[in-house]
Specification:
The protein is built from 20 helices and 17 strands. By secondary structure, it is α/β, with parallel strands linked by helices. A 6-stranded parallel sheet has the order 3-2-4-5-1-6, covered by helices on one side. The longest helix has 18 residues. The chain starts with a helix and ends with a helix.
Length: 513
């Protein structure tokens, strides 16, 4: 077991060709990188920042993100890859701006910096909350977008893109030269229920009615990259997260993917079914799309669930396991995270854990007690006690998710299911789920059904009316059809009927041949 834990602690993934292409190619146009949690999106953005800085030392680079606690990891990765690329030199941090999306009095952010740079009076959180029915974040960027903003950055990198509204992207377009923007997102981590738009709607149209960003206009193969491999999670851990997140073994399937190609984009194999309503689906995950080491070393023990009658017995169980992790299995304290997803009891959970672990000489880093401008997820030699929001984008070798019964108080609540998915996918090794017996038993039953199906997702495809559909990004064919429709409208505006316009297009194509 110690050998396994040391392997996880020291794990550095070797990217496949797809990931390397995404990381090492910087194109002079917008680029989207899609992939599941743990597919290497943050690493790729950090590599891009390091490489572009090395090649263009005077360029201004913006790296922006949503979760404040991700800042430390981003800075570490950029510095690591810059040193790798430059024979151990250090980056010039006056040229690389790692900015939180909003920012504030003691935390630099895209909003605060852009307001200062353009002499715009910033809107406070309380003002934004009182001024609109939309989210405060969306409101402040919608208002900022109304200004003529100065271009400042030569390259903008947007991490956690699934959590940003379109107004944020539109401001980033204005403040970035030549629209050299790279954004990464994971629609399965969208715990704030913000609708991910396609690239055309996200960036909007120019004064002539043309989309600023439309991948259908350009055949550059690097504009839209899908990362199929997951380097963080074990195969069984990821399948379990999907099963619970989509509600596969719930009384009814809660979320469905649009088509078989979407499953394949995410690195799954559709063994049976065509994703039409009522189709009998069998979906599995090939071992090649998960880390080879975890496939080799992990079995079903990678995910466990234990239920209790009282909060005290649940907490003591986790305390005992953490002590064993450190004293027997030789896991570092800072590679252990406890994530509380029961908002009602999280304070009680963490107070118990702090008191019990500290009495054994084990230090804790409790995010409930950190300052609002804290930018670290973990600190050396401390067990991390985190809310789900702070855990987003971060990872640990051993993850305890406490309070799973909270999710199953309302087992059909999709936002809750997405939270459970996010919590499980923070782990690059083991996941221990705990909660109260009464409601948590459904979680245990769903996991057991998955095990009985040998970790395959076996279900009947629900209809759009009975579930939420998770859509793929627009297909190239759809983009071409949209372009065709726009062209026809332009020809009609010149006085041609649609039939005449189609005839003109056919005549033009015949001459080209």
């Amino acid at each position: 077991m110690i050998r396994v834990r040391n392997t996880i602690q020291n794990q550095h993934s070797a990217f496949d060709i797809e990931q390397k292409r995404a990381a090492l190619n910087i194109i002079n146009s917008p680029q989207r990188i899609r992939g599941l949690a743990g597919s290497g999106k943050t690493i790729i953005l950090a590599m891009k920042a390091a490489q572009y800085h090395l090649q263009n030392p005077e360029a201004e680079i913006l790296y922006t993100y949503y979760t404040k606690a991700l800042h430390g990891q981003i800075k570490y990765l950029i510095e690591k890859y810059y040193k790798d690329f430059s024979e151990n030199k250090s980056p010039d941090w006056s040229k690389i701006h790692i900015l939180h999306g909003w920012g504030g009095g003691s935390l630099r952010g895209v909003y605060s910096e852009t307001c200062n740079h353009n002499f715009v009076t910033p809107i406070s959180f309380l003002q934004a909350k009182a001024s609109s029915l939309m989210s405060p974040f969306n409101y402040i960027f919608s208002e900022l977008d109304k200004n003529s903003l100065k271009s400042r950055y030569d390259l903008t990198l947007i991490d956690e893109g699934q959590d940003f509204p379109a107004s944020f992207y539109r401001v980033c377009r204005k403040i970035t030269k030549d629209m050299r923007i790279v954004w990464a997102y994971d629609d399965f981590q969208n715990i704030f229920d913000i609708k991910i738009q396609d690239e055309k709607e996200t960036f909007g149209k120019d004064g002539d009615g043309n989309y600023y960003v439309d991948f259908g206009r350009n055949q550059n193969e690097y504009q839209d990259i899908v990362l199929k491999r997951c380097y963080r999670n074990s195969r069984i851990g990821l399948i379990t997260a999907f099963s619970l997140g989509l509600g596969i073994y719930n009384e009814k399937v809660l979320q469905r993917l649009e088509n078989n190609k979407h499953w394949e984009d995410l690195g799954f194999l559709v063994e049976s079914g065509d994703s039409n309503v009522g189709s009998n689906m069998i979906v599995s995950r090939p071992e090649k799309n998960s880390p080879s080491k975890t496939n080799e070393l992990f079995g079903e023990e990678t995910v466990s669930i234990d239920l209790f009658e009282t909060l005290e017995t649940e907490c003591q169980f986790v305390v005992d396991k953490i002590i064993k992790d450190i004293t027997v299995e030789e896991l570092r304290a800072d590679d252990i995270s406890v994530i509380g997803i029961d908002n009602k009891n999280i304070k009680n959970y963490f107070e118990y854990l702090e008191r019990a672990l500290n009495s054994k000489g084990i230090k804790t880093f409790n995010h409930l007690n950190t300052a609002n401008n804290n930018t670290n997820y973990s600190i050396d030699d401390h067990v991390t006690l985190s809310t789900l929001n702070k855990a987003k984008g971060n990872e640990s070798g051993m993850v305890y998710v406490m309070g799973v019964d909270y999710i199953f108080n309302n087992p059909n609540n999709i936002v809750y299911r997405n939270k459970l998915f996010t919590g499980i996918t923070r782990s690059k090794g083991w996941v221990s789920l705990t909660g109260f017996t009464l409601k948590g038993s459904q979680c245990s039953e769903e996991i057991q059904k998955l095990r009985d199906k040998k970790y395959k997702l076996v279900f009947k495809q629900p209809s759009k009316d009975d579930s939420i559909t998770i859509y793929r990004a627009a297909e190239k064919e759809e983009n071409i059809m949209n372009e065709m429709d726009n062209l026809l409208k332009q020809l009609e505006a010149l006085g041609l009927t649609r039939d005449d316009a189609l005839a003109k297009i056919n005549e033009y194509n015949s001459k080209k041949k």
